[in-house]
# Entry
Amino acid sequence: MENESGLKEIRGRAVVVGLTGGIGAGKTTVLKMLGELGAQTFSADDFVHELYRRPDIMQMLKQRFGADIIGVDGEVDRRVLLRKVGQQPDGLKWLESVVNPQVTAERIRLMETASPGTVVAIESPLLIEGGFQRGYDLVVTIEASFGVRQKRLAARYDDKSMQVLEKRRLTTGQRIAAADMHFNNDAGISELQYFARMVYERALAMAGKSAGDKG
# Structure
């Protein structure tokens, strides 16, 4: 028997929550909230940050996009990298071909090693765009209006960098249609916390547990 996500009934494994949404909508905040509630968490964005620190990956990026992608701190400057990526017709596709297989391998490792009955929350920006939603028990998208997201991202990305990131994204409506749960994060933090708890409790219920269970 299969559940709504197309997976077999949950027996002897973790319940996997796929967390996605618009750029700057608040995915990382929700991931942190789920972790505080008891979920085991994985951020694809944080993992990519670590990949960029690896000497072999850094060298590949320098050869493809130029040495000026390395900042004064000796690490990849993501704003410069994204501008360079946007200047090449196949730049984003090439970059994804370098990092995505490693992100996927780490995600699968986490899914396979998590304790049965626990909740695993995985933040994956291109989860729905890549057609990966059938690999999750519960797909959640966090959305916010474009203006709100721009303000939140002002310190991290300039407009050109954000445009590069937006190219591969579906519309808000398309993500919502493909998700099991969604939240519009234009409101305050208390509303977001309430939603994160709803997600966690629904995942626990799928595992046959409740928020008060210890084991």
